[in-house]
Write a structure and sequence with these properties.
single chain; alpha+beta; 134 residues; five-stranded antiparallel sheet
């Protein structure tokens, strides 16, 4: 009777186990990377929504026509400031120092009215210093 020792079969099983664990380790690393990306994107979207909400909150507030710069804080992480400009224009600025949104408006009949075209994610003024939160 011919007896086989089975060493080659055992080596093949061990090789498959090693390859499988390497593949699973690689897939786990990819999963961790994608999870971190999704978490960062989710936080950025949440932050953007909070700043947009603060901008809309500032739009409905009763702002005085003096002083030239007025600020309020609707939430912990964002501020809203109104800057009176020349030519009866106003600029509403909302956000924190890493994300800012703006909305232009004007003064008509002694009241502040904002543009119906919505907010802007870039500064509508040429002077960058006027577009920052004070």
């Amino acid at each position: 009777m011919n007896r086989q020792s089975g060493v080659s079969s055992l080596a093949m099983v061990l090789l498959l186990l090693v390859l499988g664990s390497l593949i699973l380790t690689g897939l786990n690393q990819q999963l961790e990377t994608f999870s971190a990306l999704v978490s960062g994107e989710s936080n950025a979207i949440r932050h953007q929504a909070g700043v947009q909400s603060a901008l809309e909150w500032g739009k409905v507030q009763q702002w005085a026509l003096q002083p030239d710069v007025q600020c309020r804080q609707p939430a912990q992480q964002s501020r809203v400031c109104l800057r009176l400009l020349n030519d009866n224009q106003v600029l509403l600025i909302a956000g924190s120092h890493d994300l800012l949104l703006w909305r232009l408006g004007g003064i008509t009949e002694g009241r502040i009215r904002f543009s119906p075209h919505g907010w802007s994610d870039f500064c509508p003024l040429k002077e960058n210093a006027l577009c920052q939160l004070p």
